[in-house]
């Protein structure tokens, strides 16, 4: 690991309790943070991050439900296919949100 990346990971771990994990979109960085979290504050920061990911997935599900409502009442084959598509994506986003909530709960338990 380069010196720069090592410093960035160290900074992320040190700053996690203060700043949350606002820039942890990089899955490799997320994996490092998860595997190196040892303090209650670090686990709480990860829990906060996963709650935010769950909220994003719930918003995505609602977005698809909104699109689904726009197709209701239309009987064309294309509209039915679009409605099925939106319904499927909403269900997948709900499942994703549930998984993120489980991760958050796990991190909260480790913070105790």
Structure notes:
With 112 residues, the protein is mostly helical. It has one domain (3-111). The protein has helices at 3-19, 27-36, 40-71, 77-111. The mean pLDDT is 81.
Distance between the termini: 31 Å
Biggest pleated sheet: none
Give the SSE order as H and E letters.
HHHH
Provide the helix percentage.
over 70%
Give the rounded overall mean pLDDT.
Answer: 81
| Total strand segments | 0
Write the layout of secondary structure elements.
Blueprint: H1 3-19, H2 27-36, H3 40-71, H4 77-111
Helix pairs in contact: 1-3, 3-4
What does this entry show, briefly?
With 112 residues, the chain is an all-alpha fold. The chain contains 4 helices and no strands.
């Amino acid at each position: 690991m380069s010196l720069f990346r090592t410093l960035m990971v160290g900074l992320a771990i040190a700053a996690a309790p203060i700043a949350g994990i606002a820039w942890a979109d990089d899955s490799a960085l997320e994996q490092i943070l998860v595997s190196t979290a040892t303090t209650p504050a670090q686990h709480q920061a990860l829990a906060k991050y996963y709650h935010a990911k769950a909220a994003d997935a719930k918003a995505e599900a609602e977005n698809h439900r909104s699109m689904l409502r726009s197709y209701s009442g239309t009987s064309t084959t294309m509209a039915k296919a679009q409605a099925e598509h939106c319904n499927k994506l909403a269900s997948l986003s709900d499942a994703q949100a549930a998984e993120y909530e489980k991760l958050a709960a796990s991190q909260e338990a480790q913070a105790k």
